[in-house]
Amino acid sequence: MQKLVAYPLSIIYYLLFGSTLVIFHVIQWLSFNLFGYQAHKKSVDVLTFFLVVNTYVLGTRYKIRNIDKLPSGVPLIIASNHQSLYDITSMGWFMRKVHPKFISKIELGKGIPSISYNLRHGGSVLIDRKNPKQSLSAIRIMAEYIENNQRAAIIFPEGTRSKTGKPRSFAESGLKILCKYAPSAYMVPVTVNNSWKMTRWGSFPLGIGNKIELIIHDPIPVNAMPFPELFEKTEQTVIQAIN
Predict the structure, then answer these.
(1) Topology classification of domain 2-240
(2) How far apart are CA 71 and CA 89, in angstroms?
(3) Cβ(125)–Cβ(136) below 8 Å
(4) Tens digit of pLDDT for each residue in 60-115?
């Protein structure tokens, strides 16, 4: 019965989702080209707000724990498990005060209204998973960017999203580069719960009546301990809070 109800709601959602992306693609272009970074950042904040609000059609609710733990005025490395696209939109909106930037796969840099434009022009970086040299170089650029501008890099060390909520092992290389070239940063472990349920039946219909939870854990100065210890602590903190 729930899946049957999900069909018409998903159609309405996708109409809203698509319209939002097309409208804000134009708004982003104008903001960036006429007024620069700050105006573009505000347009992206409003975009992510509507992308979150659109999911209310599906009965989606959000719970954000410990948002006050996010330090301000310092570079942040936000390391999170990855369950679906809805991790990204929810982090973009609820963590907007720290100027979140994403380390994303290169395929998303073209062809998607609003999303591709923001990834190319908003301070995020695109990595080619088939080219380790390019990937590590792009991550280094991101690290230097957040170090110099006191912003936040969001990385999903699992690499590929979990379609069942069960976490995958974290990869070290990306986090290691970020820590090396952003030495004044804080590592912020974040756990995402229930986002995978949005796509439990695939991309259509979408799951309905879900409660997406973001848990922000205690920040750790990256220079407070050796990297292997920091890496293990971050991974375990994220994983242990997954439902």
Answers:
(1) Glycerol-3-phosphate (1)-acyltransferase (3.40.1130)
(2) 20
(3) no
(4) 999 999 999 999 899 999 999 999 999 999 999 999 999 999 998 888 888 899 99
